[in-house]
Amino acid sequence: MNLDLLRGNRNLLFWALHTLGWCAYGLAQFVGSAVYGKEPGYVQVIAIASLAGILLSAPLRWLYRRLWAAGPRAMVAGSVLACWVVALAWRAITNTAYLHIVKPEWAMEHPPQPLEIFVGTLSTMALMLCWTGLYYGIKFYERLQLEREATLRQSALAQEAQLKMLRYQLNPHFLFNTLNAISTLVLDGQNRTANLAVSRLSEFLRYTLDQDPMKKVTLRQELDALNLYLGIEKLRFGDRLRLEFDVDERAESALVPSLLLQPLVENAMKYAIAPREQGGSVTIIAGLEGRQLRLAVVDDGPGLPPAASGNGRGVGLRNTRERLKVLYGDAHGVEVSDASPGLAVEMRLPLEA
53-101 pLDDT, tens per residue? Predict the structure, then answer.
């Protein structure tokens, strides 16, 4: 039987477990009768007892559903009383079947007294209490599982919202700098260059809107997106911006979070290229080291001031750290170091192909 079908259909799951449980009881009784050499006809009594158990204990489910929400005291008292009633009925059927099938002559010569047909009710009561304990145990386990799944779903939604916030946080930050640059080009009378910058900006924004913030892309796709951004910056800085790529071809198929490199390169533009009249260079490095992907953005600018910590360089680096922490936990590393001259931001991510 398909286990996924059982899990998805609680009625089917109940009847499967309920029937299997009573069949297991009947099998155990049959083995016991064979071992101890019970009288002929005892197998029929076992079959009747098992069928009676299936039919008489099934309504307990309906009752226990209502007792589940009635509080502990009512649930315990109601369950014990229900078990007692079902045990009386089940024992009456079983004893009557035993007398008429196994010992019909005895039943005719010695008609049972009214209370004699209930002999063994206490042992049957224990059986019904076991049934009850299993029912409540499974129901409690299901409730815990549902709560756990709900907690996991809420956690996943919170993580997704956080990642989307971090990804979309880059867009206003990037747009402010780019639009400011385009405005400067217009004021300087470089309308043709400004128009080209607007076209490239629209291409880059179209790419960012088409990409799912939760989806990872190959490093090759990430570099192609980065080139859209660098095309805009190249219009801004012209020959002042020198770009170098040192990318291992084996690393190009590795998966990375989309737009991971752009904020780091944007930081290099802001702190290492824009303030200096002569401009500078930015190098993007990618390679494999064992089961890790190594990415680095290195510039030849002034680096961090002596008193600054490795958490400098504003929202871009902080945003990148937070995104990677949410995605990879402790399985990643981000290191900011002096490149002499300049600054190097290095990331190590688990290799995902």
Answer: 999 999 999 999 899 888 888 999 999 999 999 999 999 998 888 887 8
Beta strands in the chain (DSSP E): 216-218, 241-247, 255-257, 280-289, 292-299, 333-338, 343-350
Radius of gyration of the chain (CA): 37
Q: Which pTM does this prediction carry?
A: 0.55
Lowest mean pLDDT among 71-80, 251-260, 314-323: 314-323
Query: Residue 298: how many CB atoms within 10 A of its CB?
Result: 22
Query: How far is residue 104's CA from residue 135's CA, in Å, rounded to a whole number?
Result: 37
Give DSSP secondary structure letters for 13-58. HHHHHHHHHHHHHHHHHHHHHHHHTPPTTHHHHHHHHHHHHHHHHT
Residue 219 to residues 116, 222, 250, 317, Cα–Cα distance (Å): 82, 5, 10, 19
Residue 120, amino acid:
G
Per-residue tokens: 68: 């589940």
Residues 127, 87 contacting (CB under 8 angstroms): yes
Q: What is the rounded distance in angstroms from the CA atom of residue 204 to the CA atom of residue 231? A: 9
Q: Is residue 281 a contact partner of residue 230, using CB atoms and an 8 Å limit?
A: no
Q: What is the pLDDT of residue 312?
A: 52
* Confidence bin at 108 (pLDDT 50/70/90): low
Q: What is the largest CA-CA distance in the chain?
A: 122
Beta carbons within 8 Å of 352's beta carbon, 6+ residues apart: 216, 254, 255, 293
Cα gap 348→335, rounded to integer Å = 9
pLDDT at 244 over 70: yes
How far apart, in whole angstroms, are the C-alpha atoms of residue 44 and residue 36?
16
